[in-house]
Design a protein that fits this description.
Blueprint (H helix, E strand, L loop, with lengths): L15 E2 L5 E6 L16 H13 L3 E6 L2 H8 L10 H20 L6 E6 L1 H5 L1 H16 L3 E6 L5 H6 L2 H11 L4 E6 L4 E2 L11 E2 L1 E2 L4 H5 L13 H13 L3 E6 L3 H8 L2 E2 L1 E4 L5 H11 L7 E4 L1 H10 L8 E5 L7 E6 L5 E7 L4 H7 L7 H5 L13 E3 L1
Parallel strand pairs: 2-3, 2-6, 3-5, 4-5, 6-10, 9-12, 13-15
Antiparallel strand pairs: 1-11, 7-8, 10-12, 13-14, 15-16, 16-17
GO cellular component, one term: cytosol
Enzyme class: transferase
Family: Belongs to the glutamate 5-kinase family.
Length: 386
Amino acid sequence: MNVATDTPACSAFVEQPGPVWRRAVLKVGSSLLAADGGGLTPRFALGLAQFVSANLALGREVVIVSSGAVAAGRAVLPKLADSGAPMAARQALAALGQAQLIGLWQRFFDRPVAQVLLTHDDLRNRRRYLNARATLTELLRLGTLPVVNENDTVSVDELKLGDNDNLAAIVAALIDAEVLFIATDIDGLYSANPRIDPAAQPIGSVAAITPDLLALAGGSGSSVGTGGMRTKLDAAAKAAAAGIETVLFNGTSPAALRALAHGQLLGTRIRTGQTRLAARKYWLRHVPAVAGAAIVVDAGAARAIGGKGASLLPGGIVGADGEFARGDMVEIVCRDDGTQHVARGISQYSAGDIRRIARRHTRDIDATLGYNYGENVVHRDDMVTL
């Protein structure tokens, strides 16, 4: 099998039902936003924005992960636009172009567009991961449209790799999205390159990303974008591991956008074999906890967690063992009737903070600590019972 990176003049894909979703991430590549002469163009962005607006009007939530900052920066300082520019110059172009990129998206919406710049390190560090999730969740609650991009001014490796496809998958898991839409300038996956093989067949549905499929994926098909089909399949694999489906579609195609607006798909749907909840609980059960770290709870809290699936509040906490930071994975134990391992989860507070707020009401957190990360010490979505 081969995976095409070029699109035939007329798509051979047929409509199929699209995924059902409440919250989604839409990844838009540079090839859809960059003008031929440099800078940004609304040519394809407008159709994508209309797709987003239609879904926002239905009460759904969307986060856009958008490339294009470097391409936009090239129009601001054309002298730095040659392909052999040193990394520092490319980082400068990203800084110049990011404002242009946000301005492009803002012109299409009557709600505030929020800029969120992330690196993969922000999402690998547990504390910064929690901060990023809290920020994006709050932005969605406020009714804004978050537009995420890699912080290319500082993330050298990511700038080289053009890894916004994988960043989009990570953001989808971060915000508990049901689906990752990847808009590109190709129709989807084919059994061979349709430009050179007339027998090439469209692949409308993929049950799993296999090593053979990844090995056959091509590179970038655009002089503007830096990601190819391989990074899109890598992203789909990451999303599937989190219980999130991925949809590959042609963002330059009005027919593909019309189909999506009606809950149908002209493209490739990459499915997942597990639910988002099951994937997250599996991760929580197996990620290493901080050695010797535990939150000690009373019998009432243990019953509420184990029997009712409740979050852990300060009032049910007796104390904390060991030292750990906000965002660390810790054990939750009860010692009222001998040591009982109740659950494990991600703590929103450090060990020192927990010792200070133990047995207190949630309304006292601010007064005790001088800050507040929320009423839940461990949220039930960040916890797995044992």
